[in-house]
């Protein structure tokens, strides 16, 4: 099936995926239909000029639609001339990408004082990295200050401590540069002295260290804009798809921990090289690296035994890791670059969730909101701007499709959307190729749609053949039995050009267990907060899976509270956004640390009624 075939017959509220091609960068991205051009670009590291955070007030985010249709809004006519509107110019924050688009993004012509990152969040551009160009007087018999004293006097607006290794080359650098140098200070530490004036060049790298995928974004801290972004699978994948598998690997083999540490470092190092090469930036100009990851990934990266994380009572080595150097964990950037690790709340609510809560403003938005990072371990945060609580629910590998018969990652050939209308079933396949498997979003869509049309009942069972023939005769021939188990054919051999792609009864059960764990988690968290499902005003779906999960399907299977789909928001890679924020703004870095004291953690594993509640959540809501 092609995207256009799928889109034409999509069920109501089912999000389509569209492709946006950006010039002159040459980047193409796939996003849910209806996402604004501004958000699509921001999520993928494509800088569009803005100072209001995409709220339509600064009128700076002008882009030109080269192909595809985007209707002009009232504010477009206020911000642009009639000729510009006629020529395809639009405000990116008001331009919904309802179909495939080719968009021209003008190069940034100003340096904003506020850097827009995250989901509707602005930060004051106040990085820890500071550079000062100084022209110093030559020493003489009458002026015998030391080299360090002379330099410190030249940067008298900063109180600096000195990295001892900087002293090894300080004298030679000063003299070879004719006493005209740039001092590089990170926090209060002098980490380098560079010949000449290099104040225009200062970079940092934000890393989202995921169990499955790792994303690195090169940030120009002088302007607050991303210069390049790359992602790749975590090289630890051969050791298992989830954190428990990785922990077990360190327990079974004495070489397991150093090997996993080397693989994590290698993954990040390769991404650092890629983003620097893409932007044409010398790695020596990268002075800080911020890393957001779950507790297990961080301890593996740092070579810390993760076994206590995997057994009760699930204890962290430390919530914070100050004073880290990039060189100490094998990252090839500036020799004295610092590493900022986002703090962790607990063994299963790590720095990635702290970063996400920071980026999404969970500590300041007055609405009652649920933040849900859907994955093998599902982290949930609730907040109303005054109080916050968090928990973790063991969802298992269903959403990663690891336990699904024909499951696969979200790669070309994966069925990512399923919709059923009067005309029959339509599927959307990543890469517009023949289907070869089923990824997590396709699994949720398939089960949701089959529940909606009555092929699967609320208990999760496929209905008997005679009832399916009566309800949906067009689907009855797709319900078959293989080796004593009932299967639903998502793609026949003819449709796939190879093997069948099926949804099995066991696949449905796996999804039920996963969604029951998550829904039990947020329901118990709501009770602990003193709120009810009807009080929730917004749900933020975070992470890679959350970005592509259909809100209507999530509601239909009971994965999230029953809200209008417009109040269920794909938050994108908020872990990466939080990592960017702590690089660009010291106040936000302090804010991330403050969240440790502001968020109350609720442990579900010893909750008296968890098991009974879990069983009660296994059923799918009855279709209305």
Descriptive notes:
There is one protein chain. This protein is globular. The chain is 31% helix and 25% strand. A hairpin with a 3-residue loop joins strand 18 (369-373) and strand 19. Helix 11 packs across helix 20 (586-598) and helix 16 crosses helix 21 (610-616). It has 21 helices and 29 strands. It starts with a helix and ends in an 8-residue tail after the last helix. The strands form seven sheets. A six-stranded mixed beta sheet has the order 14-13-12-15-17-16, sandwiched between helices. The protein is α/β, with parallel strands linked by helices and 624 residues long.
Order of strands side by side in the largest beta sheet? 14-13-12-15-17-16
DSSP, total strands: 29
Q: What percentage of amino acids are in beta strands? A: 25-35%
Given the helix and strand composition, which structural class is it? Answer: alpha/beta
Whole-Å distance between the termini? 29 Å
Largest sheet: 6 strands, mixed
Principal-axes shape call: globular
Average pLDDT across residues?
88
Q: Fraction of residues in helices?
A: 25-40%
Cα gyration radius (Å): 26 Å
Poorly predicted parts: 1-12, 109-120
Q: Count of helical segments? A: 21
Lay out the secondary structure.
Blueprint: H1 3-8, E1 17-23, E2 28-32, H2 37-43, E3 62-67, H3 74-79, H4 82-86, E4 89-91, E5 101-104, E6 114-117, E7 121-124, E8 129-135, H5 147-154, E9 161-162, H6 164-176, E10 180-186, E11 189-195, E12 203-209, E13 213-220, E14 225-233, H7 243-252, H8 256-279, E15 286-293, H9 295-301, H10 307-310, E16 324-325, E17 338-341, H11 351-359, E18 369-373, E19 377-383, E20 388-394, E21 414-421, E22 424-429, E23 437-438, H12 440-452, H13 465-471, H14 473-476, E24 479-482, E25 485-491, H15 493-496, E26 501-504, H16 505-529, E27 538-542, H17 543-548, H18 551-556, E28 568-572, H19 574-584, H20 586-598, E29 599-601, H21 610-616
Helix pairs in contact: 11-19, 11-20, 16-21, 19-20
